[in-house]
């Protein structure tokens, strides 16, 4: 989603800004732009194409400057168009005094727009952002830091902004409320960005701004004030952010590469786990796990499906009741809080606005025992939670999550065992059995990925369909949901998932010869029930595509296509089955020729509500 980079330096800063935007590209965007202070005036370049094209555009025009800001935009207010791309200028393009970039949503933009229009400002975009640029220009006192502090008091909603002014060439001012923003410190130069990763290779000295902070960046100094305008000390951390997306290697897309990285990163996530120890989740974990008697999981998207899977695990092994909620719903609904709840957020990015808001909402209801399963150790989610388990998926570039999901599942299984142990529900034999299974996961996953050629053959068929049904039962129902989500995200085929027992309560009406029905058939207690559900599909002419465990005795026949997974993996089976579904979605999208790594309209890191 939207990304910000800004710099004040004594060298041409364009390469740093472009490099920063490239590092933020994976989050998803539809337009981008750079503004610079050039010889006493403001200049900008914007594009609805890729950052690489913006770079060429900038090279062709020879745009250079010592002070500047840059942005990748994911449209919320106004279509993806050059006029809506950031940076925005005020009072006008021709006579620009203020340049500004913004992440977030300004909720009172209509009211401010009316006020500023009344004052003579002419709006050139449909964005909520442009009102902030005009507001700052209107309120400008000759001191940008002071002006921004006053101006943000008029804003309702979420924002991270970076702004500079024609009259103050060696200064960038930035502010945050509800959207992440960091400061990067250099020698005689300073930076601002929405994510430390944007500055990887430029500086590792990072300050995480807090809610309501406003920062004044100059060449050799910086100054932060808090929400009340009081001087604020913020810790400087040395952050070894990933140096960007890895090379593609032999793969055609990042998504394919990331699917095949799963054996390694699941192994990395569980590395060093030689026994079940609460301390793996943080120093206070044992006390917290002793205090709680129920679990509330909050997440969005794929992470929500990881949470749904964990519900089956925790209830069955640790015997604790689990409630899993979509974060964007939970934050606004009346729920019944219980102080002895362990609140678990799951997030690959650690910056999802809805999940962060849901976490804060849970805390405001008195539930202070919080834990996150997160892939970014420096993220807001990790900083906000009492306990954390950091998955080690590495940077995930493909917008459709794959390796982040399976590493979340690995961490959640570990959490399940830990809660069971603390509750006296895990025998030494069980612990040894599960640990052995977890250690074997990388090998088991590799044998599933070796099925790729068979999946490719199916994908050719799927590519011609416009609808698909996914069926699973029990612990594999969330995996059916995730399989359907993967297919729709990247191939744009309409896909729905049902617990197989629900077929006859509605979706069976959709089943014809044109409807592929993907079925997850592990060799578990529900297998016979599932076989009956499959009969119901066959009897209506539906085409079954079954991922069956090796010993299920389901064999291919007319209208029944079977791919055998090498082994049945008990409780951990969802981690294997989902890898097969990821491959199906990937190869179907490939056959349809869609933009696999950057599907239309989607973003990797959803930092707005
Ligand atoms: C976006 C991404 C999904 C992700 C979801 C939640 O929609 O495209 O892949 O599952 O956000 O993100 P989080 O970072 O909180 O896991």
Automatic annotation (TrEMBL):
InterPro entries, alphabetized: GATase_2_dom, GFAT, GFAT_N, GlmS/AgaS_SIS, GlmS/FrlB_SIS, Ntn_hydrolases_N, SIS_dom, SIS_dom_sf
Xref: Gene3D superfamilies: Glucose-6-phosphate isomerase like protein, domain 1, Glutamine Phosphoribosylpyrophosphate, subunit 1, domain 1
Subcellular location: Cytoplasm
Residues of the Glutamine amidotransferase type-2 domain: 2-220
Catalytic residues (UniProt): 2 (nucleophile), 604 (for fru-6p isomerization activity)
Highest taxon of the lineage: Bacteria
Coiled-coil regions listed in the entry: none
Sequence ranges assigned to domain SIS in this UniProt record: 285-425, 458-599
EC numbers for this chain: 2.6.1.16
Described purpose of this protein according to its UniProt entry: Catalyzes the first step in hexosamine metabolism, converting fructose-6P into glucosamine-6P using glutamine as a nitrogen source.
Subunit structure as annotated in this protein's UniProt entry: Homodimer.
Name of this protein: Glutamine--fructose-6-phosphate aminotransferase [isomerizing]
Organism expressing this protein natively: Telluria antibiotica
Gene: glmS
